[in-house]
Amino acid sequence: MRYSEFWELVDDVFGPQGRTLARDLVIGQLDDRTAVVALDAGEDPAAVWRALCDAQDVPAALRWGHPRPRRRA
Length: 73
Hints:
single chain, mainly alpha, DUF3046 domain-containing protein
């Protein structure tokens, strides 16, 4: 996962408060760091994403973003 994908998912799954959540929520799974601090320390964005989702009890169906309507061909 790229950093840009991480932030796209943060915005999609958590909405307007997502970036604040990533900046302020201390997550035990990340050695009591925030997502932003963990990313700045070089942690894998996918691992940080999973930890953030676990901490917020995000359902598996939403962990890769909200479903998008299919386009008609």
